[in-house]
Amino acid sequence: MALWGKSTTAEGRPKWLPVDSNAVGSSGAREHCIAQPGGWALKSGLAASGNDNTAADPEIIVCISNLSNVFGNANILSIDFTAGEYADASDFTVTLTFDEEITVTSAAATSNQTITNKMYLLLDRLGATDMASDNTIAAQYSSGSGTNQLSFVGRLQSADAGFIGWSNTMVNFNGTSAAVDNDGHDIRTFRLNSSDGSSDSNDRIILDGTDGSATNAGDGLMLEQINIALEGVDSATDVRSETKTGDDSEVVMLLENGTQETGEDKLILNGTDGSSTNANDNVLVEDFTGNVSCYTQTGSSTGSALVFNGVTTT
Question: Where on the phi/psi map is residue 49: left (φ > 0), alpha (ψ -120 to 50), or beta?
Fold first, then answer.
């Protein structure tokens, strides 16, 4: 198996870099590896890149000519946030990690819900009883332009206690806001999805006259606004529910006292009659969600919604 590749998949990145968001030492994390025209590189400003200057050139660790051009448009790799309780008027920050550096044009973020000429994420404040949206949070682009990690900050409006979820599945652009990758490609893409389940390669938009002639063959396609779906590099996987890295995924069971028989703690799975009928039974651990970004939460009365893992509102 090759140690690196030139595809948009996670497996294409240098395999000696750990899949661990917390790896910032001598090797860095795989999500910090970005595509550059000269090959795979570590983003600047990290201990792993040997330079704490965020404005420094990324360190090329695998030379592949025109690598970022092979990728075309940049892809979203992961979503990060800080778990905890958030009160009314608190700020909630979401960070999107891309596989290339992104340069953003966006009006300055504000603490209100005004999105004029801004790049933003639209989130929901969800009531714990019915998981319905009480109001929205316009998490506006705040920082990260020129890097592969963009941060969005939204101010919580007043609502009942509950959760924070997603109002839509897009990175939204309003007015003059825009974002381009390291090669100058606009990351807002237009893709045709095949309706018959076949490859998209033969799907087309034909600009002809309505009478079947070519009268309007030179017309352009006018798009009011294009948003970016929160998809992975395969243009299908929902990155909101992808596995987060760097978390301990073990389930710990604490055994109280050691037995006099062995002097060691042990868990015995025997039948209730003292025989070994059930000696090979399993211990079942239910719904462990510690290593996923988002999960589906059911309301105490009705409804369900995809929410940020470990985030509640008060």
Answer: alpha
Let me know if 80 is exposed, middle or buried by CB neighbors in 10 A (0-12, 13-18, 19+): middle
DSSP per position, the chain: --S--SSSSGGGS-TTS-S-TT--SSS--GGGEEEETTEEEEPSSBTTTTB--TTSPPEEEEE-TTHHHHH-S--EEEEEE--EEE-TT-EEEEEEEEEEEEEEE-PPP-SSS--TT-EEEEEEEEETTT--EEEEEEEEEEE-TTEEEEEEEEEPPS--SEEEEEEEEEEEE-TT-EEEETTS-BS----PPPTTSS-GGG-------TTSSSTTTT-----S---EE-B-TTSSSBGGGSBPSSS------------TTTSS-------TTSSSTTTTPPPP-----TTBSEEEEEPSSS-EEEEEEEEEE-
Distance CA 81, CA 153 (A): 10
Mean pLDDT throughout 77-100?
A: 91
CA distances from 211 to 205, 206, 208, 216 (A): 16, 13, 8, 10
* Full-model pTM: 0.67
pLDDT by residue (tens digit) across 204-262? 555 555 555 555 555 555 554 455 666 655 555 677 765 444 444 455 566 555 445 55
- Give 65-87 pLDDT, tens digit per residue: 767 666 667 778 788 899 999 99
Segment 92-108 shows an average pLDDT of 91
Cβ atoms 81, 114 nearer than 8 A: no
Q: What Rg, from alpha-carbon coordinates, does the chain have?
A: 24
